[in-house]
Amino acid sequence: MNSTFLSPFGLLPIATQLTTSVITPVYQYTPPNGKVYRLLRPDENPQFGLYAKNVNSIVTAAYHVAWGSHYYKKMDSKYISTCLTYDNARLIEKNNNQANGPIVSIDVTRAPVIMYHVWNAIVRQQLVEKGDDAPTVSNFKKFAEANNEVLLVGTVPPNCVTIEPRITAPNPSVMMGLSPM
């Protein structure tokens, strides 16, 4: 949908979300392959679908991205964090000190979810709330951009989730015909 919405931030793209009674201004972008990616926690099982830790949470999007649910306040949220690319999910896996589950792709063309493309500065501006302090807003920007983060709201059914095979980079020494050390 290419209509626009006039907000305090100027003229913005809008998408009418059918799953809510409120028209929500968001940057509506479906990735070219129709998928976003998530590094699962060890307690998540894609056979049962994916869902937020607390669908009734009042935790802000900024707080969720900035601090997650492992921060000192342990505040679960209604958001499911995902990335635009498989490579972004791999980077999160590499930098994560926690135990990890597999990386999955989520078919957002079929999943009944609302997407917030928080990697986009305009979307982030709309999602920052009065209670979000400066460190939270700063981390929100840093992590959202670094991970090309897309927040999902709603439940992702199992038929929209696929476990991705591990893709490993080939050893450059072997590629050049040298024996590995």
Description:
The structure is a single chain. The chain is of the alpha+beta class. The protein is built from five helices and eight strands, in the order βββαβαββααββα. It has a single domain, classed as Heat-Labile Enterotoxin, subunit A (Heat-Labile Enterotoxin, Chain A, Alpha-Beta Complex), CATH 3.90.210.10. The longest helix is centred in the C-terminal third of the chain and has 13 residues, at 134-146. The N and C termini lie far apart (55 Å). The model is unreliable at 1-25 (pLDDT under 50).
Distance between the termini: 55 Å
Q: How many helical elements?
A: 5
How many beta-strand elements? 8
Strand content: 15-25%
Main sheet: strand order: 3-5-8
Outline the biggest β-sheet.
Answer: 3 strands, antiparallel
SSE-based structural type: alpha+beta
Q: Could you provide a short overview of the structure?
A:
The chain is α+β, with helices and mostly antiparallel strands and 181 residues long. It has helices at residues 61-67, 86-95, 121-127, 134-146, 172-175; strands spanning 4-7, 10-13, 35-39, 79-83, 103-107, 114-116, 149-153, 161-163. The chain is 23% helix and 19% strand.
